[in-house]
Amino acid sequence: MRRRRAQSTLEYVLVLTAIIAVVAAFAAGFLRTKTKDSLEHVATQMNTQVQKIDFSSGN
């Protein structure tokens, strides 16, 4: 009985670990895309604002 219980616990832990790994992999991909998009947006906005500055006035 004890051996079967330990086997069931081990199987549960392995399945749970696999599920967590899959969720983490999808989350990492999602977050990578969102972070990249956000940084590109910020860079574009900063470039737009820099282009508005008049550097030729000598100030």
Structural account:
This protein is 86% helix and 0% strand. With 59 residues, it is mainly alpha-helical. The mean pLDDT is 88.
Topology (SSEs and partners):
Blueprint: H1 2-52
Shape label: rod-shaped
Helical proportion, percent range: over 70%
Radius of gyration: 26 Å
Beta-strand share of residues: under 5%
As an assembly, this protein is single chain
The number of E-state strands comes to: 0
Short description:
This protein is an all-alpha fold and 59 residues long.
Key features?
59 residues; mainly alpha
